[in-house]
Design a protein that fits this description.
- The chain is of the alpha/beta class.
- It is built from 15 helices and 12 strands.
- Among the domains are: about 140 residues, Leucine Dehydrogenase, chain A, domain 1 (Rossmann fold); about 150 residues, Rossmann fold.
- The chain starts with 5 loop residues before the first helix and ends with a helix.
- The structure holds nicotinamide-adenine-dinucleotide.
- Nicotinamide-adenine-dinucleotide binds next to β7.
């Protein structure tokens, strides 16, 4: 949407939260400004011998509660305002789940699907070299996001380690298991989405298995949460990716659809009772729970008016615009906000980092138990504020995070 600035979206909710708990401007003014913004130019020799220069960013929004933490996105729409917003949401996400991290984010304006594996490797290594002064296991720890994966993290870890002269696994999370990744990390965000959805539904006296669930996005977050929901007996009535979606009122065979979409456009999937739908039709489809797990700015005011789900779970970051949020709240739709719903990834990233720093390997069960404990504890604190004050979950989550950030600010003071 032209003119849409996700950082304004962040500031808008921040101001609402500060007003709700009557904070003085001085208490939270610093949180409105990212601490550091780095823009880099990344020249790459392409396979055909030509030269291309890409633009990349790393923003550290806050290191108030610990080192910066946040993913790296490779997508054609990456720009500084998006990276700033994603970094700020990381600050709030880490504070909501109460792990000792600040918030950061990075990205390159590129469509990774148009590059060869070697070009992608050179791009990643050069980008890492350019952001090297900012990152490190005690400074700022990147992780995968849209368009990046464990292989990209492995290259970042290797480049950083070569520059240092020794192996530093704790510089990134989301690596392959063989070089210091954590069991359970790949599924963590999707698993966290499921834990939080079930927890929210239980407070409403409902069970996920009785609900019709629609999922936008079939990647790390959407695909995995859909598979986990289906594995527990839930009905996934719709799912989509960038090329469109599928709808089946009696429930899709999610594992089969995801496998199919790996090699062919989703539009070519054929099965009795399954119809092709657009992404807009998915968002407004007949369902009880709508899981948003694609990109930001998906539910606009126009779409919000037509949403039929009674509950939205934000697996993606910033998928609901400020205007849409207001409309949905008026309609009584419960929105479980991104900074809570998709925090599972950063919680297990934290587990990975702790294992790396201590040179330990945890069992998958230990990781999943920790994830569940941290997610439910965070859910409880947000739900309690929401109930006590009679406010939406998003505002409550921001209040929980903001109060923790303000305590850290107060204790640390302002240098000099
Ligand atoms: P991904 O690249 O693995 O998957 C993204 C999915 O969304 C793909 O299926 C893609 O086809 C689809 N998509 C893209 N544009 C779309 C559109 N316009 N309409 C419908 N579908 C579209 O990315 P991911 O890691 O799953 O991340 C998804 C969202 O979740 C992002 O907002 C990301 O910041 C957030 N998130 C990711 C993690 C993580 O651990 N990966 C953690 C927290 C939050």
């Amino acid at each position: 949407m032209s003119g849409y600035n996700p950082y304004d979206n962040f500031l808008d909710v921040l101001d609402q939260a500060a007003k709700e708990v009557k904070l003085h401007r001085n208490d939270y003014e610093t949180i409105k400004y990212p601490e550091r913004e780095l823009k880099v130019s990344i020249p790459i020799e392409m396979d055909d011998g030509s030269l291309r220069v890409f633009e990349g960013y790393r923003v550290q929004h806050s290191t108030l509660r610990g080192p910066g933490k946040g993913g790296i996105r490779y997508h054609p729409d990456v720009n500084i305002d998006e990276v700033k917003a994603l970094a700020a949401w990381m600050t709030f996400k880490c504070a909501v789940v109460n792990i000792p991290y600040g918030g950061a984010k990075g990205g390159i304006t590129v469509d990774p699907k148009t590059l060869s594996q070697n070009e992608l490797k050179r791009l990643t290594r050069r980008y890492t070299a350019m952001i090297l002064p900012l990152i490190g296991p005690e400074r700022d720890i990147p992780a995968p996001d849209v368009g990046t994966n464990a292989q990209v993290m492995d290259w970042i870890m290797d480049t950083y380690s070569i520059m240092k002269g020794y192996t530093v696994p704790g510089v990134v999370t989301g690596k392959h298991i063989d070089i210091g990744g954590s069991l359970g990390r790949a599924e963590a965000t999707g698993r966290g989405v499921m834990i939080i959805t079930e927890e929210m539904l239980s407070r409403l006296g409902k069970k996920a298995t009785d609900c019709r669930i629609a999922v936008q996005g079939m990647g790390n977050v959407g695909g995995i949460s859909a598979k986990l929901f289906a594995a527990t007996g839930c009905k996934i009535t719709a799912i989509s990716n960038v090329s469109g979606g599928l709808y089946c009122p009696t429930g899709l065979d999610v594992a089969e659809v995801i496998e199919f979409a790996k090699t062919a456009p989703i539009t070519e999937y054929k099965k009795d009772g399954v119809s092709y739908i657009t992404n807009e039709e998915l968002l407004t489809s007949d369902c009880d729970v709508l899981v948003l797990a694609a990109l930001e700015n998906q539910v606009t005011a126009d779409i919000a008016k037509k949403v039929k789900a009674t509950m939205i779970v934000e697996g993606a970051n910033g998928p609901t615009t400020v205007e849409a949020d207001k409309i949905l709240n008026k309609k009584g739709v419960i929105i479980v906000p991104d900074i809570l719903a998709n925090a599972g990834g950063v919680v297990v990233s934290y587990c990975e980092w702790v294992q790396n720093l201590q040179s330990l390997n945890w069992d998958e069960n230990d990781v999943n138990v920790t994830l569940k404990k941290v997610m439910i504890r965070a859910f409880d604190s947000v739900y309690e504020i929401s109930k006590q004050r009679g406010i939406p979950m998003r505002l409550a989550a921001y209040i929980v995070a903001l109060e923790r950030l303000c305590i850290s600010r107060e204790l640390r003071g302002i240098f000099p």
